[in-house]
Design a protein that fits this description.
Layout (H helix, E strand, L loop, with lengths): L14 H4 L32 H16 L2 H11 L6 E2 L1 H7 L15 H15 L4 H9 L39 E2 L6 H6 L4 H10 L1 H6 L4 E2 L35 H11 L6 H9 L3 H4 L10 H19 L8 H15 L4 E2 L1
Antiparallel strand pairs: 1-4, 2-3
Helix pairs in contact: 5-6, 5-13, 6-11, 6-14, 10-11, 11-13
Amino acid sequence: MSTVAIQPEKGIGSEENKIVNKNLALKSGFTVPHSNSFGRKFRNYTDSESQRNEGVENFYRENHINQTVEFVKKQREEYAKRDKVEMSIWECCELLNSVVDESDPDLDEPQIQHLLQTAEAIRQDYPNEDWLQLTALIHDLGKVLLLPHFGSLPQWAVVGDTFPVGCAFDESNVHYKVFLLAQYSTQQIKKSLNSNFFFFFFFFLGFEILKQFRGFWIQYFKENPDYNNPAYNTKFGMYSEGCGLDNVLMSFGHDDYMYLVAKENGTTLPSAALFIIRYHSFYALHKSGAYTYLMNDEDKENLKWLHTFNKYDLYSKSKVQVNVEKVKPYYLSLIEKYFPAKLKW
């Protein structure tokens, strides 16, 4: 592969990249829709009527069991090599046409549409903040890990909410506890009335009671090998209070991969952008306020930008598609401004 152009004079620690409009987080022109593209609430993981949620639950079972300290270290070491492909940012965007995120209950459109929908929504509200627009465009590019050239990793190792490994799993993590029989929808239960068990159950307890009590709680994290490891299962585990998220191992996936690709290829995006890319799936932190005891002052400052970004990332998902060819020239100009022509992936 050819040599990648690195630009250290405009690295992520430079003064230029520390200049970010502090009024950005106060803007609120974007209107949050009432429902997702399926007509249901956003990030609703308990809707028994949603057929998509059964697959999402199965995804998180594998994710919570297999994301260990050992696994994360192995994957980070492998993908830090950046020896899979050499291509531009836009070429990577086009690759996402074949990717659908099975962990997302809100969208089943090709990922390039989600990227452009997010970027265009931010562009409308923040026309002068091109770094944030570009961050939106590239934040999910790490999902190419699902494709053959990048190792064809399983979905549980690429997408979904992220969380720290090496310390106790917080209860705010999605699907921390689930009903064992939660996969049964109301229609499935009604269909099962043909069996004597369900008939007599209905007869004595009634349908409404059955809808409320149809299983028992289980916790997939308990099947994770790190769960009972005394080095990892305490509040701080292998870390210390205020150590900084940069020193914390996160469950491996597209967030951390794209962060590594951007940073090691010499992007001139500000540190807030890299923070967004790396932690945008860390919902336990930016939605529930968990794991804040691991953050340092820089993390707390950058979290403000992640909160701003998250509204667009989550609520801009739509069945209304963006005209790719129409907006392509604009985003190519931003890519040229902040990235080298070719990147090592």
